[in-house]
Design goal:
Elements (H helix, E strand, L loop, with lengths): L1 H22 L5 H20 L5 H10 L4 H26 L10 H24 L9 H20 L5 H9 L8 H22 L5
Helix pairs in contact: 1-2, 1-4, 1-7, 2-6, 3-4, 3-5, 3-8, 4-7, 5-6, 5-8, 7-8
Amino acid sequence: MNKYLTELIGTFFLVLTIGCTVIGGAALPPLAIGAALMVMVYAGGHISGAHYNPAVTLAVYLRGRCPATDVAPYWAAQILGAVLAGLAVKFLYHAGNPAPALNVPAALVAEFLFTFALAYVVLNVATAKAAAGNSYYGLAIGFTVLAGAFAVGPISGGVFNPAVAVGISIMELSPWNELWVFLVANFAGGAAAAAVFKFNNPTDV
């Protein structure tokens, strides 16, 4: 149960930071978002692996480092954390400003590429034998999200996370009818990252 609570808390604060900085009009939201993910990874990594992202959980499962019995509970905890954060942001700010419609093909590619990058980094810095016990994994993961948010935020919103996609839909930062774009691209990116990791590291099981 402690693993699932850790996933809920980490996802909650990630999504809360996204909502508060974007709706609140903070300067350079990607810095706060990357930092929030980094500190939550350091806080919960030793308990749950600090996925905070259903696409990352899928990648870690396909890589062979997450038991099948944990996948659904992790996803449930992550989505619940995102929902609670979305409701908290709506309470704090009352409503978001609806985002303009996505350019769907561009958003699919942007979300796929940077979800791939995020899951690829997680697998290499947090699950690879050669990187065991390192002290930099939280920085690497947080800064991957920061880089992606700056790079493709104007295209897709820089979501890279199905739980975040649910949270921003609740906050009205993204319309519900575009949720499928994030689900498809994010899970595909996570699965692709797992396939590449396993191809590049055939003896790391």
